[in-house]
Amino acid sequence: MKMKEGFLWGGATAANQFEGGWNKGGKGPSTADMMTGGTHTSPRRITPILEEGTYYPSHEAIDFYGHYKEDIKMFGDMGFKTFRMSINWTRIFPNGDELEPNEEGLKFYDDVFDELKKNGIEPLVTISHYETPFGLTQKYNGWAGREVIECYVRYCETIFKRYKDKVKYWLTFNEINCLTIDFGAFMGGGVLVKEGEDSAKLRFQALHHQFVASAKAVKLGHEINPDFKIGCMIAYMTLYPLTCNPDDILLAQKADQIQNMLCGDVQVRGYYPGFALRHFEEKGIDIKMEAGDLDILKEGTVDFYSFSYYMSNAVSADPAKQEEAKGNLLGGLKNPYLKASDWGWQIDPKGLRWTLNHIYDRYQIPVMVVENGLGAVDVIEDDGSINDDYRIDYLRDHIVEMEEAVKDGVELMGYTMWGCIDLVSASTGEMKKRYGFIYVDKDNDGNGDMSRRPKKSFYWYKKVIASNGEDLV
């Protein structure tokens, strides 16, 4: 089927995973710049000071900072209608708490947005995508400190005013709900959990601060330019009960509520749902709020709901049925009905249709899939081609189910495939785990000449966009 006129086909990236130039143009260190390389068997480390001789993949990444014109031209050649990118907060405020922005950083994004416009591409900008200034971690323990709200709002005001005529679509936080699970403390909130500290208390306090900051940003953005469309972004952790045992059903429902719906409810509906209040009480989580916080949440609800979707997982209350799905940070049990990627992520296109319906039924606002893709090992053939049919199959199957969801009545704005150009994996720090339509010559150790070349999927996606989703062959 064809998608509606104006459907936003494109690709998605994050500054910390592809921009590089980590200490150029006045930029300061972000939390991502303090994370070492790793693999799916050897996790990334967080280092409070940079270690000599240690590889930090975000420092150079794939150097979009130096290649942005070439890369954007290739996106234009594919026919992108939109490009999801993030602004690196520390390129604008190097420590995060300065009162005046870094002009050189602002100018860089002016140039990027101008280049996108030249190629007919609408920017979709994530304001904070796992790029909390490390200076704020050192000073306030990141988002665990309420002081960071003011720093974020100042940053938002700066970029909203600077780019009010260049950017229409904004996302306040990437995968804000990652703070509901353990691994998200540092990556999502710049929070360092010391030995003996209650991780959940710190994380949910940080999450509350992000909710308040997001709501303030939405309200401020609409005041600066009423035409802004500002959305939330959730890492949708689609969970199935492993069996029809009522205990499994209830466990899956509770996990969906806390990991997914809590953030959606606060950002779309403007209040903490009852199930969250019960969860906080049972877990001894006492969120410190200031007078007026709940009013701010009501006043700053988002215009649309965006999310990432890669896989589904299963859960069971039976201790005897705990065969874990491998390779992802979200946890969950192996689903016997699904195949898995090279990294153990369970491939479930129909789960995307279910998730789209589930979200839209609850919120009834426009929805956008802003991350979906397959990390795989790509091989360059003797003739220089890269025949990534497995990626084409993955994307085709998901787009088919996405179109089915539209037939079901879901109001879908667009689709931005994750990692449209090869970039550093957030979870493992690898380059070997490739997502892109465009191959970048760089390996896990930082070796390579950074040259770009299109894969087979590049030409396939170009056809998809040109036909507005009708030609998926």
Automatic annotation (TrEMBL):
InterPro entries cross-referenced by the UniProt entry: GH, GH_1_N_CS, Glyco_hydro_1
EC top class named in words: hydrolase
Tell me the GO molecular function terms: 6-phospho-beta-glucosidase activity
**Cited PROSITE patterns:** GLYCOSYL_HYDROL_F1_2
| PANTHER family xref list | 6-PHOSPHO-BETA-GLUCOSIDASE (PTHR10353:SF296), GLYCOSYL HYDROLASE (PTHR10353)
Spell out the family assignment given in the record's similarity comment.
Answer: Belongs to the glycosyl hydrolase 1 family.
Q: What is this protein called?
A: 6-phospho-beta-glucosidase
